[in-house]
Write a sequence for this structure.
């Protein structure tokens, strides 16, 4: 059962719970009922009011639901109290996202990142539980929770583990950095696909480089960055194209940090293809969320090409007349937009042309040695599954 609670004036509140439903599905669950509530502030004990909690309990019984997932973050105490009250497991949005990430992680680096995210999530919860007790306890017992000594111990263990995982990630990152510098020496123009989860990045990636990476109507189908060479006849050269993990609204900051290495790929790119699901009713919010994360990882200054995907799903009247245009996103910041369908292939030649133009423009801007070209790339962070690259023609 899915529950969403509109707290005060939460602009990001999703009354449809559609995204939570897709998240639940992506984790292998089936949503049997949806409930929304409105409160000025969360109830400290049950998050919702006791009347609402009873309503949820009745619905759980009526639908034989195996668990309840909240769209908002629950405190550990609220989660425990709710589980006791409802008699079924209770999860929140963050733990759901972490479960999906854990199930999807494939590469060594991906697994380490998920582990780090989980540990950090646990650590914040322990700290919160601890300070909560400290405030309320006044020398009385710990009411069923672990004692302070135990929490101290857990905290230290988690802290040690976080340190060790971070060190291992650092090492992977250094190796990645070495690879990147090697690529840079060859003067490769790097293009990264970024965007909200499920926007169609992998489908577009596959269509552009004729790969067969895993694309699905799931959130976070992609966790590991994959890179392939993209041959652009228009520029008579190859650029490198990377498919990356999708973004989502209210992604906990710690989680973004844990995925820093993967997201770094975007920050280091020469050009971002910001893929937008043109058919999504939440298009503007999703676009803003992506901008926010890009800002957070220091990629706000990387040139962007806005790729409006899934145009085949738009009604005739809403379809753009031109294949591409230019808009002012903020005062002084203009961005080119290209309208495509990764599924039908509509608009892809125009997109390739736009990428080629931007690659050539950047090349000309930085071309001091006369013989410099865009170069070729044949690297993948996922070497085990990467098919051999076809030989490229050189510029
Ligand atoms: N109709 C239509 N569907 C599309 C198009 N592009 C992608 N899709 C579908 O949208 C869903 C998500 O596609 P993906 O390519 O996995 O999206 P993604 O952005 O890589 O998603 P994550 O890796 O989960 O972040 C899949 O079911 C695709 O078949 C398109 O142009 N038109
Ligand atoms: Mg993907």
């Amino acid at each position: 059962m899915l529950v969403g609670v509109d707290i005060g004036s939460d602009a990001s509140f999703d009354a449809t719970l559609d995204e939570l439903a897709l998240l639940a599905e992506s984790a292998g669950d089936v949503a049997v009922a949806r409930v929304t509530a409105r409160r000025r502030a969360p109830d400290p004990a049950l998050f919702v009011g006791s009347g609402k909690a009873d309503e949820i309990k009745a619905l759980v019984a009526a639908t034989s639901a195996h668990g309840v997932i909240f769209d908002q973050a629950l405190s550990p105490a609220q989660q425990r109290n709710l589980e006791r009250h409802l008699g079924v497991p209770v999860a929140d949005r963050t733990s759901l996202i972490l479960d999906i990430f854990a199930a999807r992680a494939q590469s060594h680096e991906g697994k380490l990142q998920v582990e780090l995210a989980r540990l950090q999530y646990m650590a914040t919860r322990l700290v919160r539980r601890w300070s909560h007790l400290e405030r309320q306890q006044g020398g009385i017992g710990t009411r069923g929770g672990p004692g302070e000594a135990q929490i101290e111990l857990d905290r230290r263990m988690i802290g040690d583990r976080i340190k060790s995982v971070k060190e291992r990630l650092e090492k992977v990152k250094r190796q990645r950095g070495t690879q990147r510098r090697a690529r840079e020496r060859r003067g490769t123009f790097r293009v990264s696909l970024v965007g909200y989860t499920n926007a169609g990045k992998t489908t577009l990636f596959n269509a552009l480089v004729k790969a067969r990476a895993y694309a699905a109507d799931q959130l976070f189908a992609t966790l590991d960055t994959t890179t392939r060479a993209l041959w652009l006849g228009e520029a008579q050269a190859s650029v490198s194209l990377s498919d990356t993990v999708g973004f989502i609204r209210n992604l906990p900051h710690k989680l973004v940090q844990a995925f820093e290495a993967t997201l770094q790929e975007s920050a280091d790119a020469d050009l971002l293809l910001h893929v937008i699901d043109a058919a999504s009713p939440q298009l503007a919010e999703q676009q803003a969320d992506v901008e926010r994360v890009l800002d957070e990882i220091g990629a706000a200054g990387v040139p962007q090409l806005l790729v409006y995907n899934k145009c085949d799903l738009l009604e005739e009247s809403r379809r753009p007349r031109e294949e591409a245009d230019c808009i002012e996103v903020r005062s002084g910041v203009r961005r080119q937009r290209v309208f495509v369908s990764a599924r039908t292939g509509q608009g892809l030649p125009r997109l390739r042309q736009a990428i080629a133009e931007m690659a050539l423009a950047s090349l000309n801007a930085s071309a001091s040695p006369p013989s410099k070209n865009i170069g070729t790339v044949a690297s993948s962070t996922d070497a085990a599954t990467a098919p051999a690259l076809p030989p490229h023609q050189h510029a």
Summary: The mean pLDDT is 81. Residues 81 and 231 are 57 Å apart (CA to CA). The chain is about 45% helix and 15% strand.
